[in-house]
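Posting for a labmate who doesn't have an account.
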Amino acid sequence: PTFEKAYLIHLLQDMLEAGVEMRAVETHGGYFEIDTTQDHGLAERGWNVVAVDISSVAVERGRRQAEGVGVADRITWVHSDVLTDGLPAGPFDLVSSHYTHLASVDRTALFSRCFDAVAPGGTVLIVAHHPSDLDTPIRRPPRPELFYTAEEIAAQVGEDFTVLVCDARPRVHDHHGESIEIHDTVFVAQRVTRVG
């Protein structure tokens, strides 16, 4: 399992309870990393979600899963490379990137586009496998340059954001019957609301 649903709901509690129609855009990390938990959870609460993935297989699977839980009318699935095509037209109340592991230059470009797409008062959420996972028996690509910390993301965010969470969050993963502690890079920031 990936990022815990309960903690995700805790992070976004105020937004989820806002009681108004809101928009979110999600970028996923390809077929092997896609987790539609957040997409479905937001859609079930009345949000309009745009889910973007570079993998056509992931997009089709996500679309089928959304139909299965009755939220297909709230989620627009887009097969796209956000590095070349950019994000769908915003702004969005929530912009999130889940388990998107890219080389530093591409990662910086992706996160810059994520920050730009956040509406005033909106939130950006970035979750990834933490670099410390490379020191565990859990299967990860042996390419340290693809992993990053929340502090690295925080160094990129502009002054018009307030950082709310900058953490390496632990969770337990079942590895062939053995409980292994791994970590998620978790970064959450809110764009300052500007008047006028």
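Reply:
Got it, the structure tokens are right above this. The chain is about 30% helix and 35% strand.
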